[in-house]
Design goal:
Blueprint: H1 6-11, H2 32-40, H3 43-48, H4 50-63, E1 69-70, H5 77-81, E2 87-89, E3 93-95, H6 103-108, H7 114-117, H8 119-132, E4 138-143, H9 145-154, H10 162-170, H11 172-196, E5 200-205, H12 213-231, E6 237-241, H13 248-251, E7 258-261, H14 267-273, E8 279-284, H15 293-307, E9 312-316, H16 326-337
Parallel strand pairs: 1-4, 4-5, 5-6, 6-7, 7-8, 8-9
Antiparallel strand pairs: 2-3
Helix pairs in contact: 4-8, 9-10, 9-11, 10-11, 11-12, 15-16
């Protein structure tokens, strides 16, 4: 039995003593111990070695005291499993030397056996669960089909993913073919993560905000909905669409356990769009962790006041930045833990 189940209770919409707190990308580049491992091992070696993934996953539990762990991995292990080459280039980020941007390339892509191709992830989950020893829940994750599609077609990160969007608008048949294959792979992948022992899963739609509201429904949300439908009976699913505030109302009726909110959408707007019907997660601007700790504490308490302590998971509005001092990340976590709902005396 979990010693700290605050995160799962919040996802379930239960009344809690305070909101749970974790940070996207918390197992990573702002931690000095992570940087030491980065100097010794390349990125995908860290992802593909269960012992290293476990060590990195547990770091923020031990060092900043968050209420949930998220498995150290990357969204691009999914296209790798689909025989789409992915490299991590210094100074560039994700690099796909052979973009999946032609009819021939798309039609030859196959849905893989995830147990064969991604077994190292499932072994990392099992090892991490042992190391956590039921201290906190473990979150598994995947990128949204649209976000994976963007990298596959574009071949690298982009400010506008113009090539990916061009594929959608000029050859929607091919785009939907690839999106469905990514979706099928992702569902199998997340189901296997559930079998391996994760307590919740999150779908990261990092590039959903690149699409108009109408195009978002066609090329992104319908595929995320498939993932939610396939998993919601077995495990809580969090859907996070960066820049996708316009879809929150539709998302709130999806069956997801919680919705992530970025810093461009106020708590009041997010609650209004979702009719206060669902747990929300977010939305502290990651750059705000560069503020003095006293300011961070004040802003975090204000954020919780505005969201409300129930049906809420305190988090950042996107991943933590590499230049954040550890004491500032600690101040964020401590501010949530020190929160006490204000009692108004009449």
């Amino acid at each position: 039995m979990l010693k700290n189940d605050l995160f799962l209770r919040a996802l379930n919409g239960e009344t809690v003593e305070r909101p749970p707190v974790w940070m996207m990308r918390q197992a990573g580049r702002y931690l000095p111990d992570f940087m030491k491992l980065k100097e010794k091992y390349d990125f995908f070696t860290r992802c593909q070695t269960p012992e290293l993934a476990t060590e990195i996953t547990v770091m923020p539990i031990d060092q900043v005291g968050v209420d949930a762990a998220i498995l150290f991995s990357d969204i691009l292990v999914v296209p790798q499993a689909m025989d789409i080459d992915v490299e991590m280039k210094a100074g560039v980020g994700p690099w796909l030397p052979k973009p999946t941007n032609s009819e021939e390339r798309i039609l030859e892509v196959q849905v893989p056996d995830v147990y064969e191709r991604l077994n190292y992830v499932f072994e990392a989950i099992k090892l991490t669960k042992q190391e956590l020893n039921d201290r906190v829940p473990l979150i598994g994750f995947a990128g949204s089909p649209w976000t994976i599609f963007c990298y596959c077609v574009q071949g690298q990160g982009s400010k506008n993913f113009d090539k990916a969007k061009a594929m959608c608008f000029s050859r929607p048949d091919l785009a939907h073919n690839l999106l469905q294959k990514i979706t099928d792979t992702t569902i199998a992948y997340l189901k296997a993560k559930v079998e391996a022992g994760v307590n919740a899963v999150q779908v990261f739609d990092s590039w959903g905000g690149m699409l108009s509201p109408i195009d978002y429904q066609e090329f992104s949300w319908q595929y995320i909905q498939q993932i939610i439908d396939a998993l919601k009976e077995d495990i809580p699913v969090i859907a996070f669409g960066k820049g996708c505030w316009f879809a929150l109302e539709k998302m709130s009726t999806s069956g997801a356990a919680a919705l992530g909110v970025d810093w461009t959408c106020s708590p009041q707007t997010a609650r209004k769009l979702t009719n206060s019907s669902i747990t929300l997660q977010g939305n502290f601007d990651p750059s705000r962790l560069l503020s003095p700790p006293k300011v961070i504490t004040k802003m975090v308490h204000q954020m919780i006041d505005e969201f409300g302590k129930d049906k809420y998971v305190a988090n950042l509005g996107h991943g933590i930045l590499p230049n954040i001092p550890v004491p500032h990340a600690q101040a964020f976590v401590d501010a949530v833990k020190s929160y006490e709902e204000k009692k108004i005396m009449f």
